[in-house]
């Protein structure tokens, strides 16, 4: 029973202090690893002679992360978040160990696949931990802390990884994180004691918010979601169907990446894999998403397209700076640091503006900034302009994402019925991950297919510019023709505080 002290305690006070520190530490480590790997991968690729698998090292973890998201959500809703959290952290650490000890590019990619599977599952498990451990009044504060845990690695991660790679070895960028994962998890353990899959709610047939959202996310029965489950019975079955579609989508992304290694019929395999990925993602997102239906479907699609344009370009920016301009890894990573700062600043600005900046307008401006930034990088590459132009131009991409991402999150919740919020939030994350994964897969094929270094980079940036143009076309469609009711508008207002500081959730 919650004491009066507990009822007024903040996330940095007992009994939540250790859980907050541990959860934020796990988010911090995952964020640091994401930013660090982008910086050192050109060096890793050169050291392991793995240019052909460069894109797969990024796309693979995003693809396997989708499987982890679906599986962990289903597992957590059935048995509580403890077991999936422990398993996901173990997978994440195992992936780091494999990648950190890799002596070949295929071995490193294998480690990244395991790491992505654990990382995707860990994100969902932590969200369920928040629902079960913290009272609703603290949820916004915890998510804001998660966002802050992304900001710091975005600022220091690229430069720090470059320094470690130069002074020691890129292996330690992976191995150094492993020793920090266990203490971070240990801090959460006391809060996990007694946490189950909301048995009291199930006895009464009225699942709590966390259980309901997790069920909706997993595509459970409408009777379960509405609280009509029979007492004493498990309310959520294993979602093998959704896990199967997620696995098929991930396999299609991997096949798309590897199709370039098959001479002669590689492009046929790539086309089949791309179509398969599109078919597999349909059951995982709201109806009409792939057709850019106005309103929520376009919001979900826009998240994936924005991710595809931004991350499909960003992973090649340090590569461009090291190969074409002979930048050291630490200084090549500064381009990512600047973009991350611009992302955080724009996110804060849109949060302060609130309703004075409409959600749809923020998405339009953001998509235009991303397009302009990718074009600047392309023009710099084609005309061999100074590297400073590309670095400065990439700041606008970060600013565009900082405007778009929080507002797309707010719109997803505001345009969702309460019983659909879990499923739609999951769909947004899946669209985000698969959008980036598919973009990286195709850009990898383009990069490998062209014969010159200059042509390879230019080809990649032409493709991501085209994706950004698609985003600019979709952006006006995120606004629903139907006016939001007072309740939905209130939901958006309530969630904006938590989402305004969203940096790379």
Provide the number of structural domains: 3
What is the SS-derived class? mainly alpha
- Number of distinct helices: 21
CATH architecture of the largest domain, by name, is Up-down Bundle
**Structural shape:** globular
Outline the biggest β-sheet.
Answer: none
Report the CATH superfamily of the largest domain.
MFS general substrate transporter like domains
Task: Give the mean pLDDT.
Answer: 81
CATH topology of the largest domain: Growth Hormone, Chain: A
**Range of strand content:** under 5%
Kindly state the percentage of residues in helix.
Answer: over 70%
Radius of gyration: 22 Å
Q: Regarding CATH, which class of the largest domain?
A: Mainly Alpha
Write the element-wise H/E pattern from the N-terminal end onward.
HHHHHHHHHHHHHHHHHHHHH
Low-pLDDT stretches: 1-5, 198-234, 483-505
What is the number of strand segments?
Answer: 0
> Whole-Å distance between the termini?
32 Å
Short description:
By secondary structure, this protein is mainly alpha-helical. The chain contains 21 helices and no strands.
Topology at a glance:
Layout: H1 4-8, H2 17-47, H3 56-79, H4 82-100, H5 105-133, H6 139-167, H7 171-192, H8 199-204, H9 209-217, H10 222-225, H11 240-258, H12 266-281, H13 296-314, H14 317-323, H15 329-332, H16 334-353, H17 359-383, H18 387-414, H19 421-449, H20 453-474, H21 486-499
Helix pairs in contact: 2-5, 2-6, 2-7, 2-14, 3-4, 3-5, 3-9, 3-11, 3-19, 4-5, 4-7, 6-16, 6-21, 9-19, 11-12, 11-19, 12-19, 13-17, 13-18, 13-19, 13-20, 16-18, 17-18, 17-20, 18-21, 19-20
């Amino acid at each position: 029973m919650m004491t009066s002290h507990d009822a007024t305690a903040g996330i940095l006070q007992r009994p939540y202090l250790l859980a907050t520190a541990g959860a934020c530490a796990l988010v911090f480590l995952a964020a640091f690893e994401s930013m660090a790997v982008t910086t050192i991968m050109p060096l890793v690729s050169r050291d392991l002679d793995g240019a052909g698998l460069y894109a797969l090292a990024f796309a693979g973890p995003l693809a396997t992360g989708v499987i982890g998201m679906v599986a962990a959500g289903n597992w957590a809703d059935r048995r509580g978040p403890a077991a999936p959290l422990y398993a996901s952290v173990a997978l994440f650490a195992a992936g780091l160990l494999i990648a950190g000890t890799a002596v070949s590019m295929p071995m490193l990619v294998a480690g990244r696949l395991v790491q992505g599977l654990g990382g995707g599952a860990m994100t969902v498990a932590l969200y369920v931990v928040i629902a079960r451990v913290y009272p609703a009044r603290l949820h916004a504060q915890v998510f804001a802390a998660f966002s802050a845990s992304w900001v710091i690695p975005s600022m220091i991660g690229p430069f720090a990884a470059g320094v470690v790679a130069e002074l020691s070895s890129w292996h330690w960028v992976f191995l150094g994180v492993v020793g920090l994962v266990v203490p971070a998890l240990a801090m959460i353990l006391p809060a996990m004691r007694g946490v189950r899959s909301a048995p009291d709610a199930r006895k009464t047939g009225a699942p709590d918010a966390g259980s309901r959202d997790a069920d909706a996310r997993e595509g459970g029965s409408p009777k379960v979601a509405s609280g009509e489950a029979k007492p004493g019975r498990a309310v959520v079955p294993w979602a093998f169907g959704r896990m199967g579609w997620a696995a098929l989508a991930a396999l299609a992304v991997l096949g798309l990446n590897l199709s370039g290694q098959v001479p002669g019929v590689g492009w046929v395999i790539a086309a089949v894999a791309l179509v398969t990925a599109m078919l597999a993602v349909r059951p995982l997102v709201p109806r009409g998403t792939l057709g850019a239906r106005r309103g929520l479907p376009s919001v979900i699609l826009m998240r994936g397209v924005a991710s595809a344009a931004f991350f499909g370009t960003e992973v090649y920016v340090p590569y461009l700076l090291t190969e074409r301009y002979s930048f050291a890894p630490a200084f090549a990573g500064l381009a990512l640091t600047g973009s991350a700062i611009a992302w955080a600043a724009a996110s804060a600005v849109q949060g302060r503006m609130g309703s004075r900046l409409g959600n749809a307008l923020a998405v339009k401006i953001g998509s235009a900034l991303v397009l302009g930034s990718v074009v600047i990088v392309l023009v710099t590459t084609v005309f061999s302009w100074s590297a400073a132009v590309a670095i400065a131009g990439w700041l606008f991409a970060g600013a565009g994402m900082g405007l778009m991402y929080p507002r797309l999150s707010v719109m997803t919740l505001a345009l969702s019925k309460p019983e659909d919020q879990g499923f739609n939030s999951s769909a947004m994350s899946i669209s985000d991950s698969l959008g980036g994964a598919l973009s990286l897969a195709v850009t990898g094929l383009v990069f490998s297919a062209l014969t010159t270094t200059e042509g390879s980079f230019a080809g990649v940036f032409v493709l991501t510019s085209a994706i950004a143009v698609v985003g600019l076309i979709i952006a006006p469609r995120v606004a629903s023709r139907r006016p939001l009711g007072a309740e939905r508008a209130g939901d958006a207002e309530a969630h904006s505080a938590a989402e305004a500081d969203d940096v790379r959730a």
